[in-house]
Design a protein that fits this description.
Layout lengths: L8 H7 L13 H10 L1 H6 L4 E5 L6 H11 L6 E6 L2 H7 L7 E5 L11 E5 L7 H13 L6 E7 L5 E8 L2 E9 L16 H4 L7 H15 L8 H11 L12 E5 L7
Parallel strand pairs: 1-2, 1-4, 2-3, 4-5
Antiparallel strand pairs: 5-6, 6-7, 7-8
Length: 262
């Protein structure tokens, strides 16, 4: 029987821990839509448009979809799926095509220097300090001007939240939902990234944001006659909170410093 490979504590932290591997087709469509829209100029202008799907899970479907969506805006973009579990890497290799590859690695990014890292549903199992250290490790591996998108979503991708970071740290928080299935904006609290989820308590900025969104959602109830998409748009237009960019269908982005823990 092959001897189990062991790592020093520092090496293990750099690599990370295996995730549950849960994945479904189109689970990450909301974050992918955000990526190719908001960061389209970055993707199109970069000399080396390398995108990493970190911790793609038990099947490579999310990496395959990311590859398709990114190459729709940058034809020669490369996507690399990274997993700490060699068995998952081996299982994904048949899905390799031009511009899509799979390698073993973790937060050290297998020695690659990406333009974009997408790390969804990877850090929920970590404590807040370890998640912060993972942020630092991944951001240090970015190309100049690159971005890390880190967050969580539910199993079928109807509710999601993610932080966008640059090489120097967090920039913004995005909340996204299939609004036709949304009861209240605060329902997204269960999908907050690790850096925020334990801070959703009275007196903390992220709790104040969700409370403000609920109030604006309630005030927009009459618009709900025309559907939740119109209600979401009315909520975004009226909420008393700084935003980043133009709110989109089922998506709202706010500056990180407006929700960052004290």
């Amino acid at each position: 029987m092959p001897k189990e490979k062991r790592y020093t504590a520092g090496r293990a932290r750099a690599l990370g821990l295996p995730t549950r591997g849960t994945t479904n087709p189109n689970r990450l469509r909301r974050v992918d839509r955000h990526l190719v829209s908001v960061h389209q100029t970055l993707l199109q202008s970069a000399a080396d448009p390398l995108v990493i799907d970190l911790g793609y899970g038990a099947t490579p479907i999310t990496a395959v979809e990311l590859h398709q969506r990114v190459r729709a805006v940058r034809r020669n973009a490369r996507v690399v799926g990274i997993e700490i579990d060699q068995a998952r890497v081996d299982a994904a290799l048949p899905a390799k095509v031009e511009g899509l590859d799979f390698v073993r690695g973790g937060f050290e990014l297998a020695g690659l220097r990406p333009l974009v890292i997408r790390a969804l549903n990877v850090l929920r199992q970590y404590d807040e300090t370890a998640a912060s250290e993972a942020w630092l490790t991944m951001c240090a591996g970015l190309q100049p001007g690159g971005v890390l998108i880190e967050g969580t979503c539910d199993e079928i991708g109807r509710r999601a939240a993610w932080v966008t970071l640059g090489p120097s740290g967090p920039v913004s928080l995005t909340l996204a939902a299939a609004v036709e299935h949304l009861d209240r904006p605060s329902s997204l609290a269960e999908r907050l990234p690790k850096a925020l989820i334990h801070h959703n308590v009275p007196g903390e900025p992220v709790h104040a944001l969700l409370t403000a969104l609920d109030r604006a959602w309630d005030a927009a109830a009459p618009v709900g006659t025309f559907g939740n998409r119109q209600r979401w748009a009315a909520m975004c237009a009226s909420v008393d909170w700084p935003t980043v960019g133009r709110p989109r269908d089922g998506e709202l982005t706010v500056p990180w410093d407006s929700v960052a823990p004290p």
